[in-house]
Write a structure and sequence with these properties.
The complex is a heterodimer. By secondary structure, chain A is mainly α. Chain A has 8 helices and no strands. Chain A starts with a helix and ends with a helix. Helix content of chain B is 71%, strand content 0%. Classes of the chains: A mainly alpha, B mainly alpha.
Chain lengths: 184, 185
């Protein structure tokens, strides 16, 4: 069943497809953080992530007329962002080790800032330790709560491959946690 | 469902609400699998949500501004480089003209240039349309006889050499192609 927000998004897409830039800006505002979260966790670098988010929305505008409402608009954007990020990582072999975690922590509460910093360190360290395609699958499954079928559709991979990639990522996470537990 | 299958399912359902009855039943009776499940559930909580990776208000405003500026630039480029509709037909028109031109020139060469295809031959091709090869050979043979008779009748029997002198170049070529001149002589 379609929700009001989905209907609102569909209306905005139709208006944007007709050339309405204000409608497109609304769409950008609605989806910007989700795309940024995907590109950030996949690249581990906030500036690269912002550039990729920007490229994603510019490419989406250019190709907006090809969007046929067969999939969710959000999935369509994820597909663009995922492919752009993979290409960028392949191009630059961007295995970032120097994270700029403090840059986006902006609360005035030091405890929250510390928690945020630790969480980001943990997540980004883990993500950067995964092969790039596993990162994308982990992001879509864990953070976007996509079904394996939706992930297969978004990434263009077979259902079995997607399941294997996710299982391997989680096994790695579990093994790392176990090793740390034995060390402490 | 054995432990290996359950472990796969536990890994696959990491971070996702899984209400699989078979899984829950197995977990209630298998301590190893339950420990794995609980350890991963605790890990999942430490991974936060997308909210932990959101941009703040000013970053969002900056990014939106950059996206709009990029799109503006793109739209301006598109407007500047716009191609009038008729221009898209130019290559096609050029190709058609080229084909027609080549065809026309070929026709001219065929008609006047080679000299091997005379007006008579061309007329023949039109006249013989629809006839079998045998019919054409027979007709040509009759035509040739008539031609020779017509010319021969104008000259005395001793005057064959003059007869040949009076032939036009085209007539001479026609005879030469269809008859051994030696036979006439």
């Amino acid at each position: 069943m379609r929700t009001d927000s989905q209907n609102r998004i569909d209306d905005l897409i139709k208006e944007a497809q007709a050339g309405d830039r204000r409608a497109y800006s609304e769409l950008v505002k609605i989806h910007m953080n989700k795309i940024q979260a995907l590109t950030y966790k996949m690249t581990g670098d906030s500036d690269t992530a912002t550039d990729l988010t920007q490229e994603t929305f510019v490419a989406a505008w250019t190709n907006l007329k090809t969007f046929k409402f067969e999939a969710k608009f959000e999935s369509w954007l994820y597909r663009i962002a995922y492919n752009k990020t993979l290409n960028s990582l392949k191009r630059e072999k961007n295995m970032v080790s120097d994270y700029d975690f403090d840059q986006h922590i902006s609360t005035s509460n030091p405890e929250t800032d510390l928690y945020q910093k630790e969480l980001k360190t943990k997540v980004l360290s883990f993500m950067q330790g995964l092969p790039t395609e596993q990162r994308g699958v982990f992001e879509l499954r864990f953070y976007k709560e996509y079904s394996f079928a939706e992930i297969a559709d978004t990434t263009g991979k077979a259902l079995g491959t997607v399941k294997t990639l996710y299982r391997e990522a989680v096994k790695k996470l579990y093994d790392t946690a176990e090793k740390q537990r034995w060390r402490t | 469902m054995n432990c290996n299958e359950v472990k796969d399912l536990i890994f696959e359902s990491f971070g996702v609400q899984e209400n699989n009855e078979t899984l829950q039943k197995h977990l209630s009776s298998c301590e190893d699998c339950r420990k794995l499940y609980e350890a991963l559930a605790a890990q999942a909580q430490d991974f936060g949500t997308d909210k932990n990776f959101e941009l703040n208000q000013s970053e969002q405003a900056n990014l939106l501004e950059k996206i709009n500026a990029d799109i503006d630039r793109q739209e301006i480029d598109k407007a500047v480089n716009i191609t009038p509709a008729w221009k898209s037909y130019v290559p096609m028109a050029a190709a058609i003209l080229l084909v027609l031109g080549v065809g026309f020139i070929s026709q001219l060469i065929f008609k006047f240039g080679s000299g091997t295809d005379t007006a008579t031959n061309q007329n023949d091709r039109v006249a013989y349309v629809g006839l079998t090869d045998e019919d054409i050979t027979e007709i040509k043979s009759i035509e040739l006889d008539e031609f020779v008779d017509q010319y021969s009748s104008q000259y005395d029997i001793d005057d064959e050499i003059n007869m040949l002198d009076d032939l036009s170049e085209e007539e001479y070529q026609y005879l030469n192609e269809n008859l051994d001149i030696g036979e006439i002589l």
